[in-house]
Amino acid sequence: MITSTFLAAAPLLLAAFAGVAEATSCNATTPCPSSAPCCSEYGFCGTDSFCLGGCNPFASNTLDSCRPEPLCKNSNFTFSDQSRILSNFTFFDGNVSAYDWTVDKGNIQNSDGSLALVLTETNGGTRISSTRYVHYGTITASLKTGRWGGVVTAFITMSDVKDEIDWEFPGGNTTQGQSNYFWQGLIPDKTNGGIHGGLTDTFSNYHDYTIDWQPDALTFSIDGKTVRTVKKTDTVDAKGVANYPTTPARIQLSLWPAGITGTPQGTVDWAGGMINWDDPDYKAAGQFYALVKSVSVQCSDSEVTTLTSNITSYVYGGNRSDTSPTILYTNKTSLLNGAGRIAPIMGGVSGSLLALGMGVILGVNALLL
Ligand SMILES: *[C@@H]1O[C@H](CO)[C@@H](O)[C@H](O)[C@H]1NC(C)=O
Ligand SMILES: *[C@@H]1O[C@H](CO)[C@@H](O)[C@H](O)[C@H]1NC(C)=O
Ligand SMILES: *[C@@H]1O[C@H](CO)[C@@H](O)[C@H](O)[C@H]1NC(C)=O
Ligand SMILES: *[C@@H]1O[C@H](CO)[C@@H](O)[C@H](O)[C@H]1NC(C)=O
Ligand SMILES: *[C@@H]1O[C@H](CO)[C@@H](O)[C@H](O)[C@H]1NC(C)=O
Ligand SMILES: *[C@@H]1O[C@H](CO)[C@@H](O)[C@H](O)[C@H]1NC(C)=O
Ligand SMILES: *[C@@H]1O[C@H](CO)[C@@H](O)[C@H](O)[C@H]1NC(C)=O
Ligand SMILES: *[C@@H]1O[C@H](CO)[C@@H](O)[C@H](O)[C@H]1NC(C)=O
User: Fold this and answer.
1) Which residue has a Cα nearest atom 4 of ligand 3?
2) From 17's CA, which of 36, 104, 132, 235 has a CA 20 to 30 Å away?
3) pLDDT digits (tens, 9 = 90+) for 100-128
4) Residue 156 belongs to what H/E stretch?
5) Where in the numbering of this chain does the GH16 domain appear (predicted)?
């Protein structure tokens, strides 16, 4: 399932603010004009925050229209202090020294030292994104899911060209977690999803869900026990292309309403039906919620990047027509107003640079499904 679908209603709203924005849509075949050079994650052209997290380099005016993607940093975020979560992404200026996370949509709260992601009938759900990217690494979230049909809790990684790795929790079932992955937004003929049952109630108990994303394999674990491994070589398609996530990704946590009017029936069924806004939990609390206690990040490339001084970010290299996204390490600032040219100072790590064909699927926008 594509978790990002819950933001499908957001683009027009988002296009209405944040500096220069045009209600012009963009994709790899129709990139943004120079007047509004950045193609946001929602597929609209603009400036400012449109050029930060989620900005698609291949659908933007030039390959370097998007700001460089802030480098991965080993961290363990606990959420008793929420001062480093920017409450509205629109006002983010790319300063990762100031903020670790942005609220992209919705509302957060502090619940006994955990981060509450809030869903109400009017807010359309909540999503936060890390300000830094991960280019291979081990990410663990300790969380309690929702328990309501149609309400989905998610912990995912999402790249700017829509490589995606998911832990998802459809609220109708609190004894399972679902793993999934997508390559460049392509919906596979046969689902990549996995179901992992036998958990003690995921609403009442914190469990540790891990995404261990390495250049050659992707491993999903629950409470430290491996439940699934996908080898890159297992993902090679008929054309010989590995349909495997390879591009730097933000970490995203969300609680989203799948069981609402307008959602495709298959998604509603998967999520556990239409949301019951008369649920006693909703009546009592005035909201649905999921709780995140901590998120730890161990970057696979940290050894390399600390060996080379002053690396601060990732950029996409090569040329737009290349079939392979190449990721370069640079010392270029991610700040919106940071001047200067991109100066790649390193060609990347062997293995992590394995580039894949972009092919025809570049134009696919998972949000539209
Ligand atoms: C992150 O911090 C939390 C809270 O202190 C702790 O329970 C957890 O084990 C830590 N995770 C890692 C990977 O160190
Ligand atoms: C970035 O944030 C840090 C921490 O808040 C602050 O000290 C610094 O001045 C900011 N940098 C810019 C360029 O705004
Ligand atoms: C963020 O700020 C913009 C501009 O003021 C506003 O339109 C939008 O509703 C805000 N988003 C949230 C989630 O508060
Ligand atoms: C919940 O998921 C588990 C594990 O996949 C399954 O065995 C069980 O039947 C499901 N329960 C419901 C109520 O759907
Ligand atoms: C690293 O940054 C420092 C301070 O900005 C600068 O003096 C130094 O020349 C930089 N080194 C390299 C190799 O770019
Ligand atoms: C980009 O790559 C395409 C296909 O390889 C090639 O035809 C084109 O000349 C390249 N453009 C530039 C500016 O290098
Ligand atoms: C970035 O790297 C370039 C090339 O090595 C160097 O000239 C420049 O001083 C560096 N800038 C910073 C801020 O480190
Ligand atoms: C790309 O965007 C253009 C302009 O909005 C649209 O006409 C075209 O159908 C889109 N292409 C794809 C593959 O979505």
Assistant:
1) 17
2) 132
3) 999 999 999 999 999 999 999 999 999 99
4) strand 151-159
5) 62-279
Q: Which atom of ligand 1 is found nearest the CA of 296?
A: 13
**Ligand 3, CB within 6 Å, residue ranges:** 17, 88, 90, 103, 105
Amino acid letter at 270?
W
Does the domain formed by 70-299 have CATH 2.60.120.200? yes
Mutate to test the pocket of ligand 1, among 78, 138, 144, 206 (most ligand atoms within 8 A of CB): 78
pLDDT surpassing 50 at residue 321: yes
Q: Has residue 95 got a pLDDT over 60?
A: yes
Whether 295 has a pLDDT exceeding 50, the answer reads yes
By C-alpha distance, which of 111, 129, 114, 66 is closest to 316?
A: 66
- List, by residue number, the catalytic residues: 164, 168
> Of ligand 6's atoms, which has the minimum distance to the CA of residue 319?
1
Q: Are 250 and 53 in contact (CB under 8 A)?
A: yes
What's the CA gap between 354 and 135, in Å, rounded?
A: 12
Please report, for the chain, the start and end positions of each structural domain, with discontinuous segments joined by +: 4-67, 70-299
CA distances from 236 to 135, 231, 366 (A): 20, 10, 21
Q: What is the pLDDT of residues 230-261, one digit of tens each?
A: 999 999 999 888 999 999 999 999 999 999 99
